[in-house]
């Protein structure tokens, strides 16, 4: 099991550029999440998905889009990059088990928007 | 989800027990207490969770007060590798989209 994988590890974008952050999991988890973490701060939920074809907004969805066409993949799209989107982005997944909603996190993608 | 309050930072001597408190005075009956930690910008790692009974696993113990308004994560014999940011999260187990991590407690284990 590779667990949760994220690509790229690091990226520099110019203002106004777009990019897609990739996330994949091989644990057959239904739930997947995208968080961002600004320096010295906690994680903030951007979007989440409870299954293929179903996505919903978290705390800070503005400026981002997601899709979930398969159980395994949950890409995050930035359409018009802004300096405020400079952050570390974490993808996570979990079982839909009611009793133990443990989230497994990927290694993160560091994004710098200049 | 209930809001949590944690101290910004704590120190602990290596080999001693680290006791990390969390206040969640607005917790409701169906909300669980979860603890995660994040070591140096890696992805957060699940530690333990509980509803109202005390819990123990290979990593830590979780003590929840009888009124459930606060809890304490105990690392029984802290090592230097336990230096991390520890997050206390309170939420309904099925409410996956409402996970709020907050700013956590930075635990520094010193030799």
Descriptive notes:
The complex is a heterodimer of chains A (114) and B (111). Chain A has 114 residues and is mainly beta. In chain A, strand 9 and strand 10 (103-105) form a beta hairpin. Chain A contains no helices and 11 strands. In chain A, the strands form 2 sheets. In chain A, strands 2, 4, 5, 6, 9, 10 and 11 form a 7-stranded mixed β-sheet that branches. A 4-stranded antiparallel β-sheet of chain A has the order 1-3-8-7, with no helix packed on it. The mean pLDDT of chain A is 91. Chain B is an all-beta fold. Chain B is built from no helices and 9 strands. Chain B has strands spanning 9-13, 18-23, 31-38, 45-50, 55-56, 61-64, 70-75, 84-92, 105-110. A 5-stranded mixed β-sheet of chain B has the order 1-9-8-3-4, with no helix packed on it. In chain B, strands 2-7-6-5 form a 4-stranded antiparallel β-sheet, with no helix packed on it. Chain B is globular and about 40 Å long.
Please report the total strand number of chain B as a whole number: 9
User: What's the average pLDDT of chain B?
Assistant: 89
What is the element string of chain B, with H for helices and E for strands? EEEEEEEEE
Largest sheet of chain A: 7 strands, mixed
Describe the largest sheet of chain B.
5 strands, mixed
Report the span from N to C terminus of chain A.
Answer: 36 Å
State the distance separating the first and last CA atoms of chain B.
37 Å
**Coarse structural class of chain A:** mainly beta
Q: What would you call the shape of chain A?
A: globular
- The ordered string of helix (H) and strand (E) elements of chain A is EEEEEEEEEEE
Assembly state (oligomeric) = heterodimer
Mean pLDDT of chain A: 91
């Amino acid at each position: 099991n590779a667990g949760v994988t994220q690509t790229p590890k690091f990226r520099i974008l110019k203002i106004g550029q777009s990019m897609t952050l990739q996330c994949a999991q091989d644990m057959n988890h239904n739930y997947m999440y995208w968080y961002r973490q600004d320096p010295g701060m906690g994680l903030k939920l951007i979007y989440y998905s409870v299954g293929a074809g179903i996505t919903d907004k978290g705390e800070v969805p503005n400026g981002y889009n997601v899709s979930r066409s398969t159980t395994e993949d949950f890409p995050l799209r930035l359409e018009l990059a802004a300096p405020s989107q400079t952050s570390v982005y974490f993808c996570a997944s979990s079982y839909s088990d009611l009793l133990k909603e443990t989230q497994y996190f990927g290694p993160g993608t560091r994004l710098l928007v200049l | 989800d209930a809001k949590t309050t944690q101290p910004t930072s704590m120190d602990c001597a290596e080999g001693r027990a680290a006791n990390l408190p969390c206040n969640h005075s607005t917790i409701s009956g169906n909300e669980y207490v979860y603890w995660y930690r994040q070591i140096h910008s890696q992805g957060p790692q699940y530690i333990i969770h509980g509803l109202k009974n005390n819990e123990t696993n290979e990593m830590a113990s979780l003590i929840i007060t009888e009124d459930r308004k606060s809890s304490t994560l105990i690392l029984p014999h802290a090592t230097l590798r336990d230096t991390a940011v520890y997050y206390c999260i309170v939420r309904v187990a099925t409410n996956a989209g409402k996970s709020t991590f907050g700013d956590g407690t930075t635990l520094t284990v010193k030799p």
